[in-house]
Amino acid sequence: MEPRARYHTTEDDARDTSIDSLWHMLSAALATVEGLSSDRSPTFEGKTSRDGKAGANAGSDGVWFDIFGRAFAVFQLHTLFALSVTLLVVTPLVLIALNVVLSKTDKWYLLSRRRYLHSVDDDDPIPLNGWRGFFRYPIVFIAATAAVVGLAFLLTKINPYIIYSS
Questions:
Q1: DSSP 8-state code for residue 14
Q2: Which of 38, 66, 86, 161 has its CA 20 to 30 A from that of 137?
Q3: Which tens digits make up the pLDDT trace of 53-67?
Q4: How far apart are the first and last CA of the chain?
């Protein structure tokens, strides 16, 4: 506990603290363990299993994380699984539907060199620079990969212990 300016920093170790502070932390830890182990209230009781053990298979696995330090998200593990599966199924279906709509409306000209207007007055070709579309995927892929790597690097710089949190 003392000195407070070093609490939870790189100087928060036994060498840089006082004996009284270490004794206080030890006594607090012992009191906490004694209080938890001697608790006889029904607060922490779970369902009884078939073999008579209390608390077996009680509760559910939870998932929690903060959102940019502004909100705290808490939900059950099966909710995270359902959300992940939904996103993994819905996203490709939306992309396939978008491709079908673009091709049906005659707007799918990814690699086309020229496009003709369907009007009575003018049949001059309009250059679309279709080869630019050929290079869009690699450029977008590199940009997206760089963004993910950059954000992961930024996250480890802001909170280097996030890797050890799960």
A1: G
A2: 86
A3: 555 445 567 788 777
A4: 27
